[in-house]
Amino acid sequence: MTTVSIRGEAAASREWAAARESSSDKALISRIAAGDQSAMRALFARYRVALYRWLLRLLDDEALAEDLLSEVFFDVWRHAASFEARSSVLTWLLAIARYKALSARRRRTDAELDEATVSTVLDIADDPEVTLQKKNRAEALRQSLPRLSPKHREVIDLAYYHGKSIKEIAEIVGINEATVKTRMFYARRKLAELVETT
What we know:
With 198 residues, this protein is mainly α. It has ten helices and no strands. The chain has two domains: 1-120, Rna Polymerase Sigma Factor, Chain: A (Orthogonal Bundle), CATH 1.10.1740; 122-198, Orthogonal Bundle (Arc Repressor Mutant, subunit A), CATH 1.10.10.10. Helix content is 78%, strand content 0%. Mean pLDDT is 80; it is low at 1-7, 16-20 and 130-134.
């Protein structure tokens, strides 16, 4: 009985902390809308790492991810008053970051690869040593994730690395929940196939 009570209290404590942080985030956005620079610094400190990692996984380009991170927070500064609180602040930030990453990716499709860039691209399929080093399932999954299509990788990333719900993923990506579920199904199936071949 005590174990159940302690677990229940821990879950309730986590929910309370999440609710407090969410209301704290909304208060920060309100203060940012009023021009409070310290609130902007606090929001940046809270979410910069998560957003940077999200952008880096979407773009696989450190410099571009850093640039877009700055643009995301600049947009927050300029448009904080437009935040409607229909979702969490993090969900709103991830949606802004995703839009900027997709726009940057579209602009990059015509860019030519120079020899320096080509030499840094790893070809893991041709390297038997890399294949032998994949000893555990977690490593195999991590290696397989970039081989998914961008749409599938995106929903897997949001669900498992950011802990977002189907509803939140739908809001961030701008699709309906049924489409998110379908993408999750096919992404998991493809990951299983990729892990089996590694």
